[in-house]
């Protein structure tokens, strides 16, 4: 069976029925997704081995984004998020992109960088050149720290060295470039950097201080592109308005911050669901947004010759399938299996596509009916629950406050009291 991401009407089912339908659509035995059940997923005793001083668990809803076709392959995408409208918006944008073939992606590879900081170099420029002369020796020493990575085709591939003027004087910074393959790579590159430090100090005749990776993963970029048909977006005027909104975010840091937050709504949700490091990815993306000296939009929307909207996104994505919570967390393992991916590049491609879809959905809402209309309609269920509605009462309270246009906790409480009064 060829997996399909087209699951119309999925929202009309219960969570258990959805899980069964999703498993069937992905060609999986439903038993493979049992870890998504809170009773079967991460246990308290298991959590006690993941982080320190554990006292409990925090549950985050995992929704499934549908309709995604990425590089010709259908993907059902798990998204872990507490924010209403995110999953629905991504799914809707993916449906539009699907009409023109879905999302196309490319990447620069799986290279991470470790930095070794040198202080007190008497001749900083001479030090820089001595270290470059020792390139082959240093790469061999780095590779000796991780024979398994080397056997998989990865390992240290290059060094670069620069002098850096700081308020405490000139420093020499060595960058070790490492192909980490399907790992996120932090442990591998940190181990290599620490092992190299004594030899680097000896060659430099200086003192090493910090020896750690950088989350500015600009040698691990992923790009996503999609064409969104004008007729599905709402017509030529909506396309023109989205393009104008995109230009605003490209030129203005205040707008760019919110524009990029919309992208991260999608990216972070998939990163979290698959057990990857959300903080590392977010730091990398935001540093990339400021790479030219000012904070700018990570994406761009522009009209093509047919009048349709072309969306593009470029972000650094240091994610992996090897090690960390991706392997240790049962729910993350189930999410990866549901995606049907086998490499870190496939995971990064999926994450970038979801980020672009999420961004398009937000820009379309802003350019058309305004962001609050759809968002607050979905948010109404959260408002109803906040007002004290039980599971069987939430839908009715939410429908009433939406119909009355008063999506506020205090009004939801009034509606709930009225509902309970009628049933008593």
Could you characterize what this model shows?
The chain is an alpha+beta fold and 424 residues long. It has 17 helices and 10 strands. It has a 4-stranded antiparallel beta sheet with strand order 3-8-10-9. β9 (299-303) and β10 (309-316) form a beta hairpin. The radius of gyration is 24 Å and the shape is globular. The model has no long low-confidence stretch (mean pLDDT 94).
Write the layout of secondary structure elements.
Elements: H1 15-26, H2 44-47, E1 62-70, E2 73-80, H3 86-98, E3 104-107, E4 111-119, H4 124-133, H5 135-143, H6 147-151, E5 155-166, E6 169-179, H7 186-204, E7 207-213, E8 221-228, H8 230-233, H9 236-251, H10 253-273, H11 278-289, E9 299-303, E10 309-316, H12 324-328, H13 330-339, H14 344-367, H15 371-386, H16 391-403, H17 409-423
Antiparallel strand pairs: 1-2, 3-8, 4-6, 4-7, 5-6, 8-10, 9-10
Helix pairs in contact: 3-14, 5-7, 9-10, 9-14, 10-11, 10-14, 14-15, 15-16, 16-17
Percent helix, as a range, is 40-55%
| Biggest pleated-sheet summary | 4 strands, antiparallel
CA(first)-CA(last) distance: 51 Å
| Secondary structure category | alpha+beta
Shape: globular
The count of β-strands is 10
* Quaternary assembly: single chain
Output mean pLDDT.
94
Indicate the proportion of strand residues. Answer: 15-25%
| Tally of DSSP helical segments | 17
Question: Would you kindly provide a brief summary of this structure?
Answer:
With 424 residues, the protein is of the alpha+beta class. The protein has 17 helices and ten strands.
